[in-house]
Write a structure and sequence with these properties.
The chain has helices spanning 4-24, 90-101, 107-127, 130-136, 139-154; strands at residues 158-177, 180-196, 202-205, 211-222, 231-237. With 239 residues, the protein is an alpha+beta fold. The termini are far apart.
Length: 239
């Protein structure tokens, strides 16, 4: 039989069990697992549970890749030398070679300059202006002009030339020889020209008659030089 003390201890045990049950609660299978300090680096932060996920940012377009230039000569338009040279002609090919070596070359600008130089040289020769001629002619051509002027001076003769017009200036040849560009131009002009003796009498040409003159001159320039000026390297009478 249970004595009074056994009954009291049983009553106390039941009482303590019921109190612990009410405080700790019952297991339902949904309890959080015990804390594992070694898995803390993988646990989500409580703050992370409150962050609203944003849609992924669209990837920025990749920078376009610039292809490396192909080392081939650029295709030129068929009418590149329109009004200057026929497409596919030797003159056009020569001009292509010149501009490939000197990108600043402008054929129309060249022709304008050549017309100006032509008029200046003819006038300077008539006036015996050696200084002007030296700036516009190659050494060999200058020597020829200088000799003619000297011979005229020895005979006490004078020359006069007056341009009425330059009716044509056509490139008839063009080529690149090494670093030297050469362009030949055919000039067609109207000119009043006369030579007088020491007494002033006209001994050659006419002081008032307009004459048609055709000259074929060749200009040259070193394309590697900073000097943009062209000089006359050859002259001849044209047909």
């Amino acid at each position: 039989m249970f004595d009074i003390y056994t009954i009291i201890f049983l009553a106390l045990a039941v009482f303590i069990f019921l109190r612990l049950r009410s405080v700790l609660g019952q297991r339902t299978g949904r309890e959080r697992p015990p804390y594992d300090p070694y898995s803390a680096r993988e646990a989500r932060s409580p703050v992370a549970d409150k962050v609203v996920s944003l849609p992924p940012r669209p990837a920025a377009p990749a920078d376009p890749v610039t292809p490396r230039p192909v080392e081939t000569p650029p295709t030129q338009p068929a009418d590149r030398w329109k009004d200057i040279a026929d497409a596919g002609s030797s003159v056009a090919s020569g001009l292509d070679a010149i501009i490939a070596a000197d990108s600043s070359f402008d054929a129309k600008h060249f022709i304008t300059g050549a017309r100006t130089a032509y008029e200046m040289i003819v006038t300077a020769f008539a006036e015996g202006d050696r200084r002007q001629l030296r700036n516009l002619l190659s050494r060999e051509v200058y020597d020829g002009f200088d000799a003619a002027i000297g011979e005229r001076e020895r005979r006490s003769e004078t020359a006069e030339s007056r341009f009425v017009s330059i009716d044509g200036s056509t490139i008839t040849a063009a080529e690149l020889r090494g670093r030297t560009a050469q362009i030949t131009v055919r000039f067609v002009s109207k000119l009043v020209s006369a030579t007088r003796d020491r007494s002033g009498n006209v001994i050659d040409g006419s002081a008032d008659k307009v004459t048609d003159v055709t000259d074929v001159w060749t200009f040259a320039r070193d394309v590697s030089s900073r000097d943009p000026n062209w000089k006359v390297v050859a002259t001849e009478a044209g047909q």
